[in-house]
Specification:
173 residues; mainly alpha
């Protein structure tokens, strides 16, 4: 077990610096960072597509198909041109469900009030859900950017904790 921790510590300084750098980039400029992630992901699929097509072209007499390579290229194009659109659909769809839940909770709160069991907390909760859902629906990409910034902040915290643990470990060994 000690070997695992020693191996883990060997590259923890690298991971800490990587987490801090990525976290700062994401937190300061989430939109551009997200675009670069899409570009890198698309480049990966383009690379895989070209490798697959070249491999198929070299072994064409073996009955291999060009389909996987073409599919990689198509996925790369979809990610490159429509990645942000698909990502922004997630909060939009979640927003619809949150609004429905808020309306349902609001109905329950009104029913509780009608039956004499006042539920002000449920009423406030349902109104907050409806507002949150509307924000998600009306500004899905902005919502993604805020969540992405929170992710960047958590990466920075992880990087700081890794740095602290790295130096503590070095002090002990």
């Amino acid at each position: 077990m000690m070997g695992f921790f020693q191996q883990y510590q060997k590259n923890s300084l690298f991971r800490a610096c990587l987490f801090l750098l990525l976290g700062i980039l994401i937190f300061i400029n989430p939109g551009d960072t997200l675009r670069w992630i899409f570009i890198l992901l698309a480049a990966y699929f383009f690379f895989m597509g070209i490798i697959s097509l070249l491999g198929t072209w070299r072994t064409r007499d073996m009955g291999t198909s060009y389909a996987p390579g073409v599919m990689y290229l198509v996925v790369g194009l979809i990610i490159l041109f429509f990645g942000q659109f698909f990502v922004s659909l997630v909060p939009f769809i979640v927003g619809i469900f949150v609004v429905i839940e808020g309306i349902t909770s609001f109905g329950q709160a009104r029913e509780f009030n009608r039956l004499g069991n006042s539920s002000g907390a449920l009423m406030v909760y349902s109104i907050l859900l409806i507002i949150l859902g509307i924000v998600l629906i009306l500004n899905p990409f902005g919502t993604i950017l805020v969540l992405f910034q929170i992710f960047g902040l958590s990466l920075m915290v992880m990087g700081v904790v890794l740095l602290i643990n790295y130096f503590r470990w070095r002090k002990l060994t």
